[in-house]
Design goal:
The complex is a heterodimer of chains A (about 110) and B (about 110).
Chain A lengths: L3 E4 L2 E5 L4 E7 L6 E6 L5 E7 L5 E4 L2 E6 L4 E6 L8 E8 L7 E3 L3 E6 L1
Parallel strand pairs in A: 2-11
Antiparallel strand pairs in A: 1-3, 3-8, 4-5, 4-9, 6-7, 7-8, 9-10, 9-11
Chain B lengths: L4 E3 L2 E4 L5 E6 L6 E8 L3 E9 L2 E5 L6 E5 L5 E5 L8 E8 L8 E2 L3 E5 L1
Parallel strand pairs in B: 2-11
Antiparallel strand pairs in B: 1-3, 3-8, 4-5, 4-9, 5-6, 7-8, 9-10, 9-11
The chains are: A mainly beta (about 110), B mainly beta (about 110).
Amino acid sequence: ELKVEQNPLFLSMQEGKNYTIYCNYSTTSDRLYWYRQDPGKSLESLFVLLSNGAVKQEGRLMASLDTKARLSTLHITAAVHDLSATYFCAVDGPNAGNMLTFGGGTRLMVKP
Amino acid sequence: KAGVTQTPRYLIKTRGQQVTLSCSPISGHRSVSWYQQTPGQGLQFLFEYFSETQRNKGNFPGRFSGRQFSNSRSEMNVSTLELGDSALYLCASSPTTYTETQYFGPGTRLLVL
């Protein structure tokens, strides 16, 4: 059974600090995704990681993928209040096609 | 290009009723997937439709069904509603059945009383 686990589930941090969100998954998967969700809103795609060692950066967010360890990280650099949201990782599967299995989400609160 | 649209945005139903939700994908997209989001179970895959055929189905009871029309618009139906069906229902569209990015709609928030 494909399982995706994120930690921490909740993260409260001060502006200007750095932190990392971890995403572990239980079986081999071709792709890993990171999404952002603001309260009461839909999912916004942040990153798609396609291969081992892939690293992508957008602003203060950087995502990486280690397929051997089945681990992805989302690193936040010098956090700002606007990054407050819930972040989800997801992997393809367990069946082929557009089927995603999501982690439980990490709720990030950045305090001024 | 217009994004994914979902109607209605909010819905209140009572137990035992049925409900139909609609999703219009981005123009040119042929795959529509549906997800249920609840505080307890998180985001769970319901089903995917591609070119009017159900491609994948998640682990939900038969009360949950869907279909896709020739213009790629999709509907999902939930019969005999239960309190636990209260959720945000999200649909996502993509050009084909195995693409790098799925674009999510704003969701339909269903409350079952």
